[in-house]
Amino acid sequence: MKTFLKLSVMACAIFLLIAMKSKRKRVVFFGDSITQQGGTKASGYINVLKKQVDTNKFELIGAGIGGNKVYDLYLRLEEDVLAKKPDLVFIYVGINDVWHKQSSRTGTDYPKYIKFYQALIDKIKAGGSNIVLCTPSVIGEKKTGTNELDAELDKYSEGIRELAAKNKLQLCDLRKAFGSYEEKNNTQDLEKGVLTTDRVHLNDQGNLFVAEQMLPFVK
Questions:
Q1: Crossing angle, helix 150-166 and helix 95-103, to 10 degrees?
Q2: Residue 18: what pLDDT?
Q3: Which of 33, 83, 149, 199 would disulfide-bridge 66, Cβ 3.0–4.6 Å?
C-alpha cells in the first residue's frame, strides 16, 4: 500500500511538472549570426532575456544561423520554427541581405527581400503564432547617414515598418533604437566598439541593449 501511495505521489508530481512546462509561452528568435550568438554566448541577448523573465512561464529558443539571409530563413522555417509551435516569433534578418551585396555580391535585392519576408509572415501567421518584426540594426556605428550602407539599411528597415503596418504586427525598431543610442553615446563617432565588436555583431553592451528592446514584447 505504501509503495502504491509513493508511486501515486510521484506520478502526480511528474504530471504537474509536465503540465507546468506545457503552459510555458514558447518564444523563438529567428535570424542570422547575431541571433545565433544571442543564444550561444553567455552574454548573448537571448541568454540575457532568460535572466530577465520567469523561465517557469517562458521558454526562449534561439534559431539563428550565421550568414543567413531572408530566403535562408524561409527554407528552414518549417523545421526550425513551425515544428516548435511557438507562441511568439521574433524575425530579425536583413543585415546579410544588405551587407553581402557589397562584400560578396550575394545579398538580396529589395523587391525579393520584401517578397520572402511577406512569405515568412504568412506561414508563421498560418501556424497560429504571434510575430514581432525587427528592423536590422547597424553595419557601422558612426552617426546615422555617415556609414557606407546606411541608405540601404534605412530602405530595408522602412520596408519592414511597412510590412508591420500592413500585416498589423508588432515592430521592434532596432534600427531607430541603435541610431538614437549612437547619437547620444558614440561621442567619438567610432565605427565599432560601442554596441558592436566589428560594426555588426554585438558586444556585451549591444546584447544587453537588444535584450532591453525585446523584453517588453516577450512579457
A1: 150
A2: 45
A3: 33
Whether the predicted model's global pTM rises above the 0.90 cut: no
Q: How does 45-80 read in b/e, with b if 16+ C-beta sit within 10 Å?
A: bbbbbeeebeeeebbbbbbbbeebbbbbbbeebeeb
| Residue 178: Cβ-neighbour burial (10 angstroms; 0-12, 13-18, 19+) | buried
Q: Which pLDDT score, from 0 to 100, does residue 217 have?
A: 97
Query: In order along the chain (219 residues), what is the average pLDDT of each group of 10 residues?
Result: 52 45 87 98 97 96 98 98 98 96 86 98 98 98 92 97 98 97 96 97 98 96
| Topology (CATH level 3) of domain 23-218 | Rossmann fold (3.40.50)
The residue with cell 561621442 is 187
> What pLDDT score was predicted for residue 17?
45
Q: Domain segments of the chain: what residues?
A: 23-218
Backbone angles phi, psi at 130, to 5 degrees: -80, 155
Handedness of CA 29, 34, 39, 42 (dihedral sign): negative
Query: Does residue 33 contact residue 1 with C-beta atoms inside 8 Å?
Result: no
CA dist., res. 207 & res. 114, Å (int): 26
Helical segments of the chain, H only: 2-22, 33-40, 45-52, 70-80, 95-103, 110-126, 150-166, 174-185, 204-218
Alpha-carbon distance of 201 to 56, in angstroms, equals 30
What Cα–Cα distance (Å) separates residue 46 from each residue in 31, 79, 182? Answer: 12, 20, 22
